[in-house]
């Protein structure tokens, strides 16, 4: 009886082995088991305490000099390099330039529009005066990301804000009615720093913001670089040569109320000559 059962069992296995699907099924089963083992091992490795921390620390040490904050600083610097110079207003379509930047190579008409009359003297504008089309008060925004280095109230210019940026670039905002930032604050492009107002020095411009851009302390024509990459900012050679000529609005202070010093008198005489030529 036992011998018969053994023969039946052997015949049953032979029939199973003879099936075409048997060996492929065995291969698939083995492959599934191997794949399950690999996934289990990887999951176990990820759960080992300190394994990922060591890898992250090594990455920090290699690329960040053991200072993760350095990565943020580098990223901010790169972002500033890629920014374009924006008008310091929310809606550019609603703004207009009422006083131009004084360019020594500009035609007489543009030079005339770049002269500021104050106390019976003409002064060359080292920036642009921007007003709204309706003449109303408007928000003044940061044209570039940077750090606020100065906030003050000037008797002639109104509230003043200076912001420093990468690569020796500085932006300057005057004739502000009020200020919403403090010295040392970091601002992003488009952040509101105050609102436009009026001042004694540029009364003819009405409610406006006086905006300047400087590269390595030399004035640059903002109108020429609006909506251009900040990396393209350059100081024209003629402007660099004449940096010391004229009186910029940023250097005006309470001394102007008494006529200023001898250098300012000379500058005003030069600009009066320019105005006379332009009118001619």
TrEMBL record:
The chain crosses the membrane at residues 21-41. GO terms for molecular function: metalloendopeptidase activity. Gene3D superfamilies: Glucose Permease (Domain IIA) (2.70.70.10). Residues 267-280 have a biased composition (Low complexity). It holds the Pfam family Peptidase_M23. Residues 229-280 are annotated as: Disordered. Residues 229-238 have a biased composition (Polar residues). Keywords: Membrane, Transmembrane, Transmembrane helix. It comes from the Bacteria. Residues 125-222 form the M23ase beta-sheet core domain. The keyword Protease does not apply. Residues 246-266 have a biased composition (Acidic residues). SUPFAM superfamilies: Duplicated hybrid motif. PANTHER family: PEPTIDASE-RELATED, STAGE II SPORULATION PROTEIN Q. This is Peptidoglycan DD-metalloendopeptidase family protein. The lineage of its organism: Bacteria, Bacillati, Bacillota, Bacilli, Bacillales.
């Amino acid at each position: 009886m036992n011998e018969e059962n053994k023969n039946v069992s052997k015949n049953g296995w032979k029939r199973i082995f003879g099936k075409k699907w048997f060996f492929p099924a065995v291969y698939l089963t083995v492959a599934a088991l191997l794949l399950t083992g690999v996934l289990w091992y990887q999951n176990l490795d990820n759960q080992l305490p300190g394994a990922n921390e060591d890898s992250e620390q090594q990455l920090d040490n290699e690329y960040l000099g053991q200072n993760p904050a350095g990565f943020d600083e580098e990223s901010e610097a790169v972002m500033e390099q890629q920014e374009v110079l924006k008008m310091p207003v929310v809606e550019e379509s609603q703004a207009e330039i009422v006083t131009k930047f004084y360019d020594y190579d500009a035609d007489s008409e543009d030079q005339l529009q770049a002269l500021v009359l104050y106390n019976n003297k003409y002064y060359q504008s080292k920036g642009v005066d921007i007003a709204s089309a309706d003449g109303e008060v408007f928000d003044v925004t940061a044209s570039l990301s940077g750090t606020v280095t100065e906030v003050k109230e000037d008797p002639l210019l109104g509230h003043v804000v200076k912001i420093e940026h990468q690569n020796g670039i500085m932006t300057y905002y005057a004739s502000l009615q009020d200020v919403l930032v403090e010295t040392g604050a970091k601002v992003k492009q488009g952040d509101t720093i105050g609102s436009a107002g009026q001042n004694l020095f540029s009364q003819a411009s009405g409610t406006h913001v006086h905006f300047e851009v400087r590269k390595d302390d030399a004035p640059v024509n903002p109108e020429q670089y609006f909506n251009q990459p900040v990396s393209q900012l350059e100081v024209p050679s003629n402007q660099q040569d004449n940096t010391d000529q004229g009186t910029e609005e940023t250097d005006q202070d309470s001394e102007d109320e008494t006529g200023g010093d001898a250098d300012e008198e000379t500058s005003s005489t030069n600009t009066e000559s320019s105005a006379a030529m332009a009118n001619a």
